[in-house]
Amino acid sequence: MLNRYFLTAFLALTLTTFFCRAQNSLPAADVLRQQYPDSKMVMLEKQEHLNIDYHSGQWNIESKIKEKTLYLSEAQLYSQKSIFLTGFDEINNLEAKTLVPVKKGKKTEFQEFAVEKVETKDVVMGSIFYSDYKEKKFVYPALQDGATTLLSYTQVTKEPRLLNAFYFSNYGGPVLSSAYSVSVPKNIQIAYKLMGNNVDNIRFEKTEKNNLITYTWTAENVEDLKPEENAPSSSYYEPHVVVYITRITNKNNPHEEEVILENADGLYKWYYSLVQNINRQPSAEQQQLVATLIHNAPDDTEKTRRIFQWVQSHIKYIAFEDGLGGFVPREANEVCAKKYGDCKDMASILVQMLQLANVPAYYTWIGSRDKPYSYYDVPSPIVDNHMIATAKLNGQYVFLDATGEYQPFGLPTSMIQGKEAMIGIDKDHYDIVKVPVIPMEENAETENLSLTITDRTLTGTGNIAYTGYKKVFFQYDKLRADAAGKSGSFYNEYLRKGSNKFETKQVSATGFNNNSAPELKIDYNFTVPDYVTKAGDKIYVNLNLNRKYQQAAIDKKERKLDKEVEYQYVEDYSYSLQIPDGYELNYLPPNSTFNDPEFGYTATYTHQNGSVTLHFRLYINHLMLKKDRFDAWNSMITKLSDAYQEVVTLKKAG
Fold this sequence. Notes:
With 654 residues, the protein is an alpha+beta fold. The chain folds into three domains: 4-257, Immunoglobulin-like (Sandwich); 264-434, C8orf32 fold (Roll); 440-652, Sandwich (Jelly Rolls). It has ten helices and 38 strands. The strands form nine sheets. The protein has an eight-stranded mixed beta sheet, with helices on one face. The longest helix has 20 residues, at 4-23. The N and C termini lie far apart (101 Å).
């Protein structure tokens, strides 16, 4: 077996070879500019070798990382470089330099500029109050178009369950040669999972030499998939490999094994070890609080509702990431006293308070929809990034995520819909269940308006109601507007229809800041000057006041990625126009419809009792619109855009 001293010498030799060879094998920038005209940089080589060993009761996990990058244009944009790490990592032996091409006759030589100053700084993240994330930050000297940078460093990982995924691609440009290898002694077993697009192009090789097994994955000409609006996280499409340690066998006793992450059992065993010793003794304050909250509650559902809403309204969500503190909830007594905490802390206090109320409640690990992994396929902490509480009510699991400030009781936060939840029952038992995807009908936007015409001004009165996630996100939008000092214009912008001359006159809202209310309802009056067209003895009015999908066609030539939506929903509008005295209906537009299992609409016109009414209903019945559905989506938008142009025509009677 390679010992760590030999490994250090081997890596040093590899680094020296890398830097020497790099200066003698750089391709011409002009050739790459022709090959990649839309790229500002090309990563020539991306390599990582992970060595895993276990010696004298200690894990030794080191990754040797090397990058070679050539800059084709606007090189100054890339001069600053950061390497990020957590409290579970160390970065050592960092070397970086710039190679600037210099013409000497017909030959090109490279002048070397080494990075001499590397700063280590705390990373300030907008949504995290405190974290142990750090960055190694430096500037590539003399970086210019046509120059090449070389980077090499060693990353030490202290926790064997927290191995990083390796991405064959690179943000910002294509990768010509990408390689990842893992070496382990034969008494350590690993598993792996390839994820993302084009993984069939990744070559795999497994070799054995003496007591060492090496797994190697290589890829060439890996394309750069640029970020796109409303695309899923990069983990869905960028090709990458997830490696995890399954078990280790005692070298001196083959019958003595320790399971690390062989399956979900191993992961849960570790997770349980992190929570088993918290909340051993509830405080008198908490016991009294729970007794007060559940007084006269008729059943467990009502107890749970009251406790959930108390945590929602009294514990401020503040994210923390601090070593194992990023995995271990704080004591519920402490959270209750301080009145703030992160997702794990809110789960901690929910579980304890519910258990004090004799409601079955459990810690629950779950990944947001940014995580494409399953506990069954990749039983490692890479699967999840969130913790909630789960109560069992009437034989059914109810997911409780108190980080959602406006979340109604019983409605999971939108970011965990459809995701697997690992529910910790006790030391030896857990359940893995999927959080339901909330049906579109429960997330509704329903608007009813009565319209009249005064000269060329359209005047309206009515109401709009939001339920489910529509209600939740309306309140977040209002909160952001208030924080930005835009309270005065919020309703005008949010309810705008017809044209930019739309103006609300009177607005009153009910159900706001009331998570128990089934809907949030806004009553309002408005005017839209110059919206009505008059010509001769006729009046023309387009009742399609809300045409927000008119520009929703997807450019298939430009868009490379699937399109994600936050939640499924229905929008239902009824706009009724009172025909002015002395006028009669001259033209009633035809009805229009488009039905697809994932999306569709209906537009229906009726003429009754001196009024013309447009009833419009649109539904979105998917969370991810796949690329192979773009044609069908565009067909709907084309038909809908035509329907948007239809105009009701009135003419003078007689």
